[in-house]
Amino acid sequence: MMTRRPWNNCRWTSFSTERRFDRQERDINMLFAILFPILVASQEPCPTCVRGNETCYNVSHVFDIDAPFRNRVVIHKLALLRSSNTLFYSFEPRITDPEYYKVGSINIDDPTNSSVVSVGKTMNFGTFDLDQDNGLVYLGGGDGIYVLDTKVDKVAPYSSRGDSVLSLFYKGNVYFVTYGDSRVVKKKGDNFEVIVEHTMPLKTFVVSKDYVTVCLSTYGLFASKKDEIVWLSYNPYFRGLAIDRHDVIYTWWLDGIYKVIIEKNLSESRIVKAVYIDDVGSLTFDLDNNFIFTSGKSLYRLNDLNTTCDGSEKKKKIRI
């Protein structure tokens, strides 16, 4: 509590001067009363929290993935097969391995239950996606697309033998991009349909429930539907794309996770920062639709605390 100075003991203090100091004191006390709850609320909700756009998340370590990684661990993609709570991931194996890329899996409930997909020859499976309803894993690599039936643990050729498949996505049908190509191709039965064609090579993509295709290329991030293409970001270095269980699209980079907002008027679509966090290697969502992500070989979860972070959290980041 502020102590008022006895200004009346000073002979040179006029009545108007005293009233001015009274007003200043009242203003300071009022300001303190307003700021005090904010100062109390600004205490960090936990030592491992990061700021989201509208909430705070607690970061928790799930486990370390055990796989034949090279010295610098690189995991390119994650996806969860919900029926068995099994996490699939594509990664770069040891430098002595004849393959540049592999796909592995690990059970979230029992991390000792893990494996690496193998067909007995060099395949370089660098991309994959899941058919949740049928327990199938579509694998893309240097010799087209293969399919793993998780119910019988068998891999078989599926399509596009001889093509180098760079990115693959499943939504009722298999969609894919071949290495160096600027087109997203949809496979429907024995037929192929080009659904998006850009003027620059594509790196990865996803397809929303409204069949908006979001693509990452060497020139940035784009959203496309029919003949309309919208440039969402000039940054070509986003590390990947993922869709949660509510069909919300996310991408991520060095400085955090971004939400891709698709508007009915496609030209109004945009990206916004969703989570302020460093070192996200790859990302997907758990059974409760929480973010789960890798940093190196470690798997982490972001739990929504249902509380907002104050202004002091805006620039806060943690390094895993």
Structural write-up:
The protein has one helix at 15-41; strands at 49-51, 56-64, 75-81, 86-91, 102-107, 114-116, 127-131, 136-141, 144-149, 154-159, 165-170, 174-178, 183-188, 191-197, 202-207, 213-217, 220-225, 228-233, 240-243, 249-253, 256-261, 270-275, 282-285, 291-295, 298-304. The protein is mostly beta strands and 320 residues long. A hairpin with a 2-residue loop joins strand 13 and strand 14 (191-197).
Highlighted features:
320 residues; mainly beta; five-stranded antiparallel β-sheet; four-stranded antiparallel β-sheet; globular; disordered C terminus
Structural class: mainly beta
Strand runs, count: 25
Strand content: 35-45%
The number of helices is 1
Low-pLDDT residue spans: 1-21, 26-44, 311-320
Mean pLDDT: 86
Question: Mind summarizing the main beta sheet?
Answer: 5 strands, antiparallel
Gyration radius over CA = 26 Å
Work out the helicity level: under 10%
Shape annotation: globular
The side-by-side strand order for the widest beta sheet comes to: 1-2-25-24-23
The rounded distance between the terminal residues' Cα atoms is: 42 Å
In N-to-C order, the SSE pattern is: HEEEEEEEEEEEEEEEEEEEEEEEEE
Q: Secondary-structure map with pairings?
A:
Blueprint: H1 15-41, E1 49-51, E2 56-64, E3 75-81, E4 86-91, E5 102-107, E6 114-116, E7 127-131, E8 136-141, E9 144-149, E10 154-159, E11 165-170, E12 174-178, E13 183-188, E14 191-197, E15 202-207, E16 213-217, E17 220-225, E18 228-233, E19 240-243, E20 249-253, E21 256-261, E22 270-275, E23 282-285, E24 291-295, E25 298-304
Antiparallel strand pairs: 1-2, 2-25, 3-4, 4-5, 5-6, 7-8, 8-9, 9-10, 11-12, 12-13, 13-14, 15-16, 16-17, 17-18, 19-20, 20-21, 21-22, 23-24, 24-25
